[in-house]
Amino acid sequence: MSNIKDILESVKGGTLSVDEALLSIKEKPFEDLGYAVVDLHRRCRQGVTEVVYGASKTPEQIVGIVNSLLKNGEKTILITRLSKEKAEIVKRSISFTYYEGAKIAIVGSLPEKDGNGKVVVATGGTSDIDVAEEAALTLEALGNEVVRIYDVGVSGLHRLLSRLDDIMSASVIVAVAGMEGALASVIGGLADCPVIAVPTSVGYGTCFNGLSALLSMLNSCASGVSVVNIDNGFGAGYQASMINHVRIKG
């Protein structure tokens, strides 16, 4: 049992003794596997289990880290940037659901949706969907209700305006776009909630692999728009989840 809140609730409910609870809390907050030091108290501190970045790890390392988290009571584990080839090897040892376009694997079942409201994930074009799905699946793995609004870029603005009800009712919006990245500014001028802009590397020559969209989004005149790195759907999804789970403290 790695979540201190769960431990305290178990003591309150009488299913765990004070001595057993003390022992659980005293347990080492990490496990050193030699190639990785797995943070077993990440969820206690931040409310989210350690996320496994798969791109630069071997399949064997991914299996070892995930098994460590599972052994210590984690129910839902997110693996990001996992290639199809690597996923096929990892799946021989661990059961998970794999999403090829987003390069995301989710170990275990999705948690209950416990955010404050809905999170909208919107894209400028179909070519931006893989990055958007990385954000959307991250959000779902972290307990958020997600509304997807895809291919509503500024070259056909009526498509976005037809979804104004979703835009206006969102608690946070992730706007994913390449080319000139104008979608984030348009949504930022319509919404009364935080907008997280994700520039993508989609576009022709002078898009400079997403740099043009990044600079446009950073220079947005719409208040309330913040920007993550190029193609960083995971970072946007994680940040949006934090906003959607903000509680009044004290």
From TrEMBL:
Ranges for domain PurE: 117-249
GO biological process: 'de novo' IMP biosynthetic process
One Pfam family from the record: AIRC
Molecular function in Gene Ontology: hydrolase activity
InterPro entries on file: P2CMN_synthase_LarB, PurE_dom
Protein name per UniProt: Nickel pincer cofactor biosynthesis protein LarB
Gene: larB
